[in-house]
Amino acid sequence: METLNIRSLIKAGFHFGHRSSRWNPAMKPYIFKQRNQIHIIDLMATLRGLIAAGKLTEAIAAKGEAILFVGTKKQGAELVEREAGRCNSPYVAERWPGGLLTNYTTVRKRLDRLVELEEMEETGGIDLYSKKMISRLRREKRKILRNLGGVRKMDRMPGLLVIVDPAQERIAVKEAVKLEIPIVALTDTDGEPSEIDVVVPGNDDSIAAIEIYLSVMADGVLRGTGDKPGGPVGEAVPEAESTEVEEAAAEPDAPAAAEPEQADSGADDSEKAEEATAAAEEATAAAEEETAAPEVEPESAGSGPEEGEESP
C-alpha cells in the first residue's frame, strides 16, 4: 500500500463501530463519539495503531520468527489467505483448530500424517487398498488440509499473531496469552483491548478495512524479511486535519444508515461497504472545504499527538 491517511480510512469504513448497546467500555479511549446509536471510532488512534503494528510486525519478522495470520470470519477469510500467501506466512482462515498453539506437538503429528497421505497418492501406494479405504484416506486428507493446510509449513511456534476480530477468535487469543505470544488485532468497539499488545481500532466487518489492515501487516513482514524495499508504512495527516475529517464523518445524518446495525443485521456486506463509501465521500468533501493541509510522512504520526501521549 502506497499511502495510508485519514481519508483512505474513511473511504474504507474504518470509522463505523458497533451499536452503542453492544460496546465494551474498555474501548472508550478508541471511540471518537456516538452518533445515531452508532459509535464512531477515533481514526487517529487507528492510524497510530496501524503504524505501530506495522513496525512490530517488521521487527519480529526481521528476527526470523513466523507471523501467524488469523481471521475466520466470512468477510476476511479470503483476504487472510491471500495476504499471508503474499508474505509467505502461515495462516488460519477456516476455523481455529483448538490447541494449535498449546498442543502444537499433536498438531505436528497430524501434519506429518498429511505428508504421508500425499506420498501414498504420489507413489501409487494408495491403490493397494480397497475402494472403501481409498475413499476414507482421501476424506481424511481433505479434512486435514481444510483445518491445517494454512499452517503446514509452520515448523515452530509463531512470534506474533495478526488477528482480525479478536472477539470471534477468542480461543486463539487465550492460547497466545497463555504462551505469552504478542498479538496485533483489528478490534471493533465490542472487543477486549486488554489482551491485545497492539490494538488497531476499526470496523472489523468492512472488507475494505480488513484489506487495508492485512496489507499493512503483510508489507511489514516483507520488509522484515528483506523481500520488500524499506519504506514508510503509509502517509499520515496532521492531527488538526484528521479531527475535522472525523467530525465530518460523524456529522452526516446517515452513519446509522451507512452501516445499518453492523453486527445485528444480516445486510449484505457489499451493500454495507457501498453505503459506507457514500457517507465517507460526503465526509471527505466537507472536510476538504474546511482545510487544505498537506499530507506529511508517517514519521509525523508519532509526533502528531500532543507531547506525552503514547501510541496504543
Please tag this protein with its features.
Helix Hairpins; 11% strand; 3-stranded antiparallel β-sheet; 11 helices; Rossmann fold; alpha/beta; 2 domains; 5-stranded parallel β-sheet
Uncertain segments of ≥5 residues (pLDDT<50)? 234-242, 248-273, 290-312
Number of helices: 11
Second-tier CATH architecture of the largest domain: 3-Layer(aba) Sandwich
CATH fold label of the largest domain: Rossmann fold
Q: Can you identify the CATH class of the largest domain?
A: Alpha Beta
Helical percentage = 40-55%
Described by strand count, sense and barrel closure, the largest sheet is: 5 strands, parallel
Gap between N and C termini: 22 Å
Give the percentage of residues in beta strands: 5-15%
Radius of gyration: 21 Å
- Give me the side-by-side strand order of the main sheet: 5-4-6-7-8
Number of domains: 2
CATH-wise, what's the superfamily of the largest domain? Glucose-6-phosphate isomerase like protein, domain 1
Helix-strand sequence: HEEEHEHEHHEHEEHHHHH
Count of extended strands: 8
Structural class: alpha/beta
Describe the structure.
The two termini are 22 Å apart. The chain is elongated, with a radius of gyration of 21 Å. It has helices at residues 6-11, 43-62, 77-86, 104-123, 131-148, 170-178, 207-225, 239-250, 255-258, 269-290, 299-303, and strands at residues 16-19, 31-35, 38-41, 67-70, 91-92, 160-164, 183-187, 198-201. With 312 residues, it is of the alpha/beta class. It contains eleven helices and eight strands. The strands form two sheets. The chain has a five-stranded parallel beta sheet, with helices on both faces. A three-stranded antiparallel beta sheet has the order 1-3-2. The protein is 46% helix and 11% strand.
